[in-house]
Amino acid sequence: MTLQSTQTSLPLKYRPQKLADLIGQPYVQKTLSNAIRTQRIPPALLFVGSKGTGKTSTARIVAKSLNCLVGRPTLSPCGQCESCRKIELGIDIDVTEIDAASNTGVDDARELIQRIQIKPMHGDYRIVIIDEAHQLSVAAQNCLLKTFEEPPSHIVFILCTTDGHKLLGTITDRCMKFHFHPLSVETIVAHLRQIAEQETINITEGALREIARASAGGPRNAINLLDTVFLSGEAITEATVADAVGDVTGKDLIEILHALHQKDRIALLIKAQQLIDNGKYPSLIVEGLMGALRDLLLILTTGEQAFTFLSTAISPGDFQALEHQWNAEQISKILDHLYQRETQIRYTSNIRLWLEVTLLGLIPGSPSQTNSHPIEKPLNLEKLWDDVIQAIRPESRPLLENVKLIKLNSTATLKIPAQQQEILQAKIAPLTKTIARISKIPDISVILEPCVSTPTGN
Fold it and tell me: At what angle do helices 82-89 and 55-67 cross, to 10 degrees?
């Protein structure tokens, strides 16, 4: 890997420069290497995967491998020639990078089609990298379809997207697809440990695991976070990382679990107050506790084999100390209780109150835990509905502008303009699925309540 100056940020310094540098994507690495080695370059590539898994970096590596002036195609682009340096900076005349989020229309697609008819100036290929390709409008995708069906011999399209299913099937069917998988915690920890050694970063093993866990499988996210905590200028511990991401530490989670086991309500309230006063979001506290209980349940049911699959920063030794305090039935009941309360904490306006109520309700044998019909708590329906609208396709959002969520329990009641009833009824299935995902009520149903006038904010 070619390293830049010591002043360069870690994400840029350790960005992969050739296919051999890719971390945790063996299929992508092997297949693309064979394609370049045998010069069987497909006219269109589709890179699908979650954020930070290396899609855009790999697209630039492919571009450099195909157009490196020292020798092309090559598996080891020099990184020093004019073509390699300009591709890395995003200013090469033969490589066009497009952000589909801001170039989504038909006119943008037509302009691109005209541009790619021109032969490459320096390299063998004119390469078009379309980032967030799923943001292209349907009309723009249809406009590009003819070019995908009969591409010029000098063109290579590389589509990068986090949501491949939003692209037209007629487009994806003409691409060679590559799935970029989230990396395991162990793979990210090993990569971060190597960087820490090269940069002489003083960091504990627990902090490395906490960074890996917080990065959600994305090496870019992990290196960004390592760079952030490195700038603190102190020895990096688990607590340092937790403060940086607003997460709770393994020590915090152990204290909560001990207080629950001992039925110490005062200790729970004090801990909740400490965490909130330290800037911890109640939703993250609940998520961390659910993760710790999930890990503990795995250990109770599968033994030491579960240590490979732990998702929290609690050490195996600490978990072993907790084993004799809990059984699987208790943990399952608490997880069920947390699942029911998670949405209420996320959308209620009085988060401190409901965090305290939720934690007290976790004590084994408490009335709220044994109540099969929990008291309905006030939710911020307006915020939840905004989240639903943001989760649907952009072209469908105008349809919901005058729709209001007025009630939510096992059923979501929507107040709608009477003239929109027929069209909304036709879209009830995907709308119900989105509401279920956002509200975390899996078996929810949706009722449309027409009104003569447009619903107001009251």
Answer: 160
What 3-state class would DSSP assign to 151? coil
Alpha carbon distance 94, 119 (integer Å)? 9
pTM of the model: 0.69
229 residue type, one letter: V
pLDDT digits (tens, 9 = 90+) for 72-106: 899 999 989 999 999 988 899 999 998 887 877 88
Residue 154 corresponds to which amino acid? H
Distance CA 90, CA 88 (A): 6
Which of the four pLDDT bands, split at 50, 70 and 90, describes residue 366?
Answer: low
Three-state SS string over the chain comes to: CCCCCCCCCHHHHCCCCCHHHCCCCHHHHHHHHHHHHCCCCCCEEEEEECCCCCHHHHHHHHHHHHHCCCCCCCCCCCCCCHHHHHHHHCCCCCEEEEECCCCCCHHHHHHHHHHHCCCCCCCCCEEEEEECHHHCCHHHHHHHHHHHHCCCCCEEEEEEECCHHHCCHHHHCCCEEEEECCCCHHHHHHHHHHHHHHCCCCECHHHHHHHHHHCCCCHHHHHHHHHHHHCCCCCECHHHHHHHHCCCCHHHHHHHHHHHHCCCHHHHHHHHHHHHHCCCCHHHHHHHHHHHHHHHHHHHHHHHHHHHHCCCCCCHHHHHHHHCCCCHHHHHHHHHHHHHHHHHHHHCCCHHHHHHHHHHCCCCCCHHHHCCCCCCCCCCHHHHHHHHHHHCCHHHHHHHCCCEEEEECCEEEEEEEHHHHHHHHHCHHHHHHHHHHHHCCCCCEEEEEEECCCCCCC
**pLDDT beyond 50 at 350:** yes
Residues 6+ apart with CB under 8 A from 315: 206, 250
First to last CA, the chain: 59
